[in-house]
Amino acid sequence: MTRSYGLRISVLRALLLGSVALLILDPTIAAARVGVTSATDGDPLGKPPAEPERVLRIGIDVQANELITTGSNDRAHLVFLDGTSITVGPNAQLSIDKFVYDPNTKTGELAVSATKGVLRLVGGKISKTTPITITTPSSTIGIRGGITIVEAQPTHTVSTFVFGKQLTSTAQGQTTTVIRPGFRVITNAGPPQARRPPCGRVNSAMQ
Length: 207
What we know:
Blueprint: H1 2-25, H2 28-31, E1 33-41, E2 45-47, E3 54-55, E4 61-63, E5 67-69, E6 75-80, E7 85-88, E8 93-102, E9 107-122, H3 126-129, E10 132-135, E11 140-144, E12 147-152, E13 157-163, E14 166-171, E15 174-178, E16 184-187, E17 193-195, H4 201-206
Parallel strand pairs: 9-10
Antiparallel strand pairs: 1-4, 1-6, 2-3, 2-5, 5-8, 6-7, 7-9, 8-9, 9-12, 10-11, 11-14, 12-13, 13-16, 14-15, 16-17
């Protein structure tokens, strides 16, 4: 009886050690979760890289390389592990290209691609030291801290700097930097251009 019990303990220990080794050899198993869905309207969809597409309900985990899609009546609010949040508006498509975060040093990287639609980003701990990157069809945007609103379309992008340290927009080999809250950068066929938005435009976009 004692020998049988000891054998079961040895087998269990071997299985546990094997599981830990698997996580070490394949860190994507432990690192697939990058955040959580904290609020939604309608039926926004999420498509993880190795799982079927599903409706994002409150409390559902968001994974690395997940594709987020919203319809005309949908919105999704995503909170990442470093505290960064992204609100995805209607008729939008967003993919989470990269998320790396070290909670001990509070540093990492976050990169997303916005194919179309409006999103609002509130920077978390990563953005304190490293710009969060948003790639659209016409530009690459870097955000340090604060709040930014990005409107992405196939031929142009409007990025509004609401608050924070700075926003950069790169297109056609040229980079424009904005440090004044309320200014926006427009990229179309040419290089990015910084402008003050029309009265009430920022408040409208925030809502």
